[in-house]
From TrEMBL:
Limits of the FAD-binding PCMH-type domain: 1-158
Keywords for this protein: FAD, Flavoprotein, Oxidoreductase
GO biological processes: lactate catabolic process
Annotated Pfam families: FAD-oxidase_C, FAD_binding_4
Gene3D superfamilies: 3.30.465.10, FAD-linked oxidases, C-terminal domain (3.40.462.10), Uridine Diphospho-n-acetylenolpyruvylglucosamine Reductase, domain 2 (3.30.43.10), Vanillyl-alcohol Oxidase, Chain A, domain 4 (1.10.45.10)
Protein name in the entry: FAD-binding PCMH-type domain-containing protein
GO cellular component: mitochondrion
GO molecular function: D-lactate dehydrogenase (cytochrome) activity; D-lactate dehydrogenase (NAD+) activity; FAD binding
Cleavable signal peptide: none
Amino acid sequence: MGRNIGYGGTAPRVPGSVVIDLGRRMNRILNIDAENASCLVEPGVSYFALYEEIQRRKLPLWIDTPDVGGGSVLGNAIDRGVGYTPYGDHFANHCGMEIVLPNGELLRTGMGALPGKDGADNPTWQSFQPAYGPYVDGIFSQSNFGIVVRMGIWLMPEIGHQSYVITFPREEDFPEIVEIIRPLAQQRILGNIPQLRHVIQELATTARPKSDFYSGPGPIPREAIREHAAKLPLGDVSWVFYGTQYGDAASIAKQLDVIRTAFSKIPGAKMLLPEDLPADHYLHSRVSVCSGVPVLRELDWLNWVPNAAHLFFSPIVPTRGRDAKIVHDIVVRLHAKHGLDLIPTLCVAGREMHYIVNIVYDRSSLDEKRRAAACMREMIAEAAAEGYGEYRTHILFADMVAGTYNWGQNALMRFNETIKDALDPNGILAPGRNGIWPKRFRGKGWEILGTEVEDALEGKGIGPKPRA
């Protein structure tokens, strides 16, 4: 459990730390309330386990799963991960927590703070998020202020659904695609959190190695992508939009007509349904994910290079074509500079999109690891200079990313440090997580900054060091 794929895995930031494995024994589904469409889970409950229990009970409920279903339902939510049904914002769809604080006390948030009758759990703990007074749940997401040991999650009632794919022929269609998505998403015509992918993903999700398509040095050329994409079911295209609509058959048909008409403004745009594509095409995996069925198909792109590892660059960008192009141009240029294949996926909502870049590299090659780290470091800096920040990052880059959120002379970090010192004065819980260092570590050079990231790949500079 706690895979945290692409963001550093289970590794602690400080060498020699004791790792508490909550997945091995704290893996109970404590409650599924079919009438309330909610559940209460411990950290070790995976998406597969929750899905299988709902199926065993024959309940008309869906979970919302991310691309890879093997991880922790609770863990993904507190790291603010996303899925692809209307319940795709996992933290927004949690309701109530039980937390072990650094002093050993138990805290229940939301309505859970009010005892139920005769000592039972409060009957509205998984029904109403804020309760009375300050709403504190957020400070326990992406933080090191406590250990969340129980969490309520809202489930989606089962409903009719239709997945589809729309292809676009030209690279330069990208900004206009984003402009068309925005009003469709804001008006809630789009049924889910859709994905916009570059066509290189069509090659990567075949589970075939890059060498099947290109055996030369450096990144796979656009001409080679075009040549081999032309032989695949979607053909020689540039961008691929994966979406899903929900409702009864008549309402879905009307929604698809509106979406088809909107995207027809882009010459050559083409909509396809699952029945139009072979059974092994990636769209069928999206059908599962977008109807609450966890899968592992997404990991097929780990066959892209030998000994594959990966990390994600994940900035938040306004859903506007001009903003999307600024970030995309930065990413394209820096991938070319460092000789890396560009594999982008955009999870697009009405006001913002998660621009996710998947850097896949050979972990046995120190050169590739250093180039991947340098590319990541430069993307963080250049995107931040334009006002675009990451929502989540690998542990090696946590200090860098935290440092970009520096408005008001680092007011946010000073606030986080104040909370950390109040709740955890001895600094025992996950020091350095997401750049939040306890007082006893502060000012001693524990941060990893700049080119120190590349040195850390060889085990250098992870501990304290003098600062000028």
